[in-house]
Amino acid sequence: MLNDEGYYTIDFEDFEAKARDEKVRVCIFCNPHNPSGRVWSTEELERVGEICLTNDVWLISDEIHCDLLRTGKTHTPLAKLFPDTDRIITCMSPSKTFNMAGLMFSNVIIPNKGLREIWQARHYGFKNPLSIAATQAAYEHGDEWLKQLRSYLDDNFAYVEEYVKQHLPLAVFHIPDATYLAWIDITPYAPQNVSLPLFFAEQAGVLLEDGGMFVANGEGCIRLNLACPRSIVKEGLSRISRVLIEQKVDQKPGEKVPVHV
Q1: What is the CATH number of the domain that holds 227?
Q2: What is the Cα–Cα distance from 172 to 188, expressed in whole angstroms?
Q3: SS3 assignment for 76-101
Q4: What tens digit of pLDDT does each residue of 151-163 get?
């Protein structure tokens, strides 16, 4: 990924070089992307597909966040753009959208007959009746609930954006196109040579994930789950900003740290 002040795009030169490597046989593609929250454009998706298919690379498109879009955004399934191939596998699930991960039910669409038979032979195929009933109920009757959820998430993201601007102005944050996850670069404030999840757990009582869980160059970034009441978001951000400002002042005495409390 290329990072332009918090806006992420695909490094297609690097991507194509990897696809050309004869040892590379499959690409697991995240659409929408986690953790950046990008909803890929049709042009980006077409280029990804063309590069992979031209180089005989199978595509597994993870589209689990496709229902959780910001208002006005639309999601395009990768396979929709390549109707003549059976080498794109699509993975979706109600688990993120409807908070049903514990029911362990998902949709894996495998158009290639031979590969589907291998999957069916090796995969444990028991289907929990409760999971089936819950999934059917969510998809048939959850539309209005999902609309309200999206609206609430939009407002949570707007709150985070304004809070970061006011209290951590050196941090980099953009409201993502999709997901319920805020990806924030706190490098100017972050303590050095420490585990950020451990630091925030011990110093702020906040459990979060850092960039090291996702990419090799994610140092200094944190990922926040905003699928919760706004009161929790407010309290969490308050604790995060407080300990960052305190440690920044302690770490470099005399340095003026931009902050608005």
Answers
A1: 3.90.1150.10
A2: 9
A3: CCHHHHCCCCCCEEEEECCCCCCCCH
A4: 999 999 999 999 9
User: ∠ CA 63-216-185 to the nearest 5 degrees?
Assistant: 80
Cβ atoms of residues 182 and 176 within 8 Å:
yes
Residues 173 and 109 placed together within one structural domain of the fold? no
Residues 6 and 99 in one domain: yes
Q: Rounded to an integer, what distance in angstroms lies between the CA atom of residue 182 and that of residue 225? A: 7
* Domain CATH code at residue 20: 3.40.640.10
pLDDT digits (tens, 9 = 90+) for 16-49: 999 999 999 999 999 999 999 999 999 999 999 9
Asked whether 177 and 73 are in contact (CB, 8 A), the reply is yes
Structure-block tokens of residue 181 = 């996850």
Alpha helices in the chain, H assignment, sequence order: 12-20, 42-54, 113-122, 129-141, 143-167, 196-204, 230-251
User: Where in the sequence is the domain holding 57, given as residue range(s)?
Assistant: 2-141
The answer to whether position 257 is within a domain reads no
Q: Judge if 111 and 163 occupy the same domain.
A: no
**So what's the pLDDT on residue 249?**
64
131 and 155: one domain? Answer: no
- Residues contacting residue 183 through CB under 8 Å, at least 6 positions apart: 6, 35, 36, 37, 173, 176, 221, 222, 223
261 lies in a domain? no
Residues of the chain predicted below pLDDT 50: 253-261
Neighbour count for residue 75 (Cβ, 10 Å):
17
Amino acid at 40: W
